Amino acid sequence: MDTQQNTALTRALAEVPGPLPTSGVIHITIPHTDRFTVVGNHLAQHPHLSCTAVGIAVRIQSLPQGTEISIKALAARCKEGEKRIAAALRELEAHGYLQRFRHRLPGQKVITRTVFCNQPAALSHPRSQAPVAAPAQAPIPARSLTHVPDPDPDPAPVPPVPPTPPEPPGTSAPETPAPLPVPPPTPPPPPFVPLVPPPTAPKPPRPPLPQPSLLTPELDRAATALLSDLRRHAPQFTLSEDDIRHLAPAVAAWLERDAHPDAIRHTLTNDPPQPLRHPVKLLRHRLTALLPPPLPGAGDLVAPARPRILVTPFQTCDDCDRAFRSPTPGHCRDCRTEHPRIAA
């Protein structure tokens, strides 16, 4: 049985279109032929709904019309308790997927009706007329995954317009009503962008390791010794010689910026993930992302001097002994005005 299962899985993986991702989930998509429900990504990848709310919404969407979806009815169908189901229904109601309203029956009895909408964003936009149903076609085989439309379909025949009979003499044509104003088209809602990129999305390039401005033999020796000594403090950080030579320039950049060796060791080995599967990748990430800035110089720590404000001193007029502001002694403005000879 194990051999058959592995063979079937290998054959299914070989039929997946495109190259397989190096990490993450691999989707094996087999088309459904019966008993399936279409669920939009706006619900399956909703950033503000819990997984319980998404699962309850999918369960409700898969039920036929008229099925009871009260809290007790859903608790009988699901493994979640009534409290979790009630919280999930409140989430769906807050985001528009679920709506509840009071309905009065003919016998003066009031009941609560529940409506579920698979696309609540489309309710705020007018929907166009539903297209005419196409004639039945042969079922699509399960292996066909794409549908190529006809590039040049034949236009539908236009029925002939009967001629308008002539009006008898002496009669006036009826007035043509003015055309009603056409409202402007409503812009479509913005597309839903999932927060999690697909597994086939290209990954951004990794930032390069920091490099010192000048890798001196002393810096290289100190960085190599620090990396080799990590296993004495944290055995899970036992590195090979190639890994130490690869990471030594980054540690030298830290030492060049006057980082203390104990501080570097604590930053690299503090609180690692459990289990630690790739210690070299963790060290590379921390050496790049947590690189400290250079220490400021002594002149950078001095507060800037306040700008000096020049004050014009007071002078005493040589003629009237009045005080006035002037950089040099002499006569005031009134004396210079009354005696032009003095001003000259």
The 3D shape can be described as: flat
H-E order: HHHHHEEHHHHHEEHH
What percentage of amino acids are in beta strands?
5-15%
Uncertain ranges: 130-155
Overall average pLDDT: 79
Distance between the termini: 120 Å
Order of adjacent strands in the largest pleated sheet: 1-2
What is the gist of this entry?
By secondary structure, the protein is mainly α. The chain contains 12 helices and 4 strands.
Element layout with pairings:
Blueprint: H1 2-14, H2 41-44, H3 51-62, H4 71-77, H5 82-94, E1 98-104, E2 110-116, H6 217-228, H7 230-233, H8 241-256, H9 261-269, H10 279-289, E3 314-316, E4 323-325, H11 333-338, H12 340-343
Give an overview in words:
The protein has helices spanning 2-14, 41-44, 51-62, 71-77, 82-94, 217-228, 230-233, 241-256, 261-269, 279-289, 333-338, 340-343; strands spanning 98-104, 110-116, 314-316, 323-325. By secondary structure, the chain is mainly alpha-helical. Among the domains are: 20-123, Orthogonal Bundle (Arc Repressor Mutant, subunit A), CATH 1.10.10.10; 217-289, no CATH class; 314-343, no CATH class. Helix 3 packs across helix 5, helix 4 packs across helix 5 (82-94) and helix 8 (241-256) packs parallel to helix 10. The longest helix has 16 residues, at 241-256. Mean pLDDT is 79; it is low at 130-155.
List keywords for this structure.
32% helix; flat; 4 strands; two-stranded antiparallel sheet; Arc Repressor Mutant, subunit A; 344 residues; mainly alpha; 12 helices
